[in-house]
Amino acid sequence: MNKSLEESAARLAPAIFVVLWSTGFIGTKYVINNAEPLTYLAIRMAFVVVVMAVIAAVARPKWPDRIGVMHSAVAGILVHGFYLGGTAIAIAHSIPAGLSALIPGLQPILTSTIANRWLGERVTPLQWGGLVLGLAGVVLILHDRPMTGEAGWGWLASGVSLISITLGTLYQRRYCNRIDWRAGNLVQYIAVTIFFGTGAWLFETNVVHWTGEFVLALAWLVFALSIGSISLLYWLIRHHAATSVASLFYLVPAVTALMAYMLFNERLDGVAIAGMAACAAAVLLVNRR
Known about the structure:
By secondary structure, the chain is an all-alpha fold. The chain has 11 helices and no strands. Helix 4 packs parallel to helix 6 (153-175) and helix 5 runs antiparallel to helix 11. The longest helix is centred in the N-terminal third of the chain and has 31 residues, at 2-32. Belongs to the EamA transporter family. It is found in: Membrane. It is a multi-pass membrane protein. InterPro entries: AA-Vitamin_Transporters (IPR050638), EamA_dom (IPR000620), EmrE-like (IPR037185).
């Protein structure tokens, strides 16, 4: 019975991850209305540190050695620091939602190219075909959406976040796979709290409007995203090839578009729906045994 439950959970994990990760774009838009990006992220990570510290105190996991702590800190700065910081800064600088959704859509191609050389993972021609199909699906989903925004820091932040999440997932797989996720995550969140706190102190006014919208969105981002989706991401990285995990990000723009349609009544036409179908087909091809 326990084995059956574990198998069912393993099958559901990718879908749950995609849904949770997609909500991050929605939640970020709500919190950015009430706080500057680095200030909000410093507050978010401080709360996450408290939650992870409680989890670690109860579970008493094996702690990594000094080298493991260093690797965890680097992975945290990449996966949480530059990626979340870049995304939040881009949204704060009026970068459209379409571009924010495109960022994870580009990640599988970049991840597969690097993994092929850095991790020694063999990417088959069928998988390459699936990756290209997924990229085409992302383009269809984002067709006819505004792709203009404030020049400068917003565009730079978008590019930084794409590179950071790609390198971060690969770094996590190569150097942090054997570290207990509870201890490793706590180290990562402590490092990134210092990272965001320093950035907020140096570059922002630190003004926060503690509205109901801000508190609810912040709570969701802390528990569902920073605890739930990140734990699932690292579990998937530990148990699957980097290319297979990265392919899941093709589904994020599609799920985000559906959420925006339901929450904000954004237009969802036949071309975008065809793009969603292409993304789903791409994930099946990349993960085909």
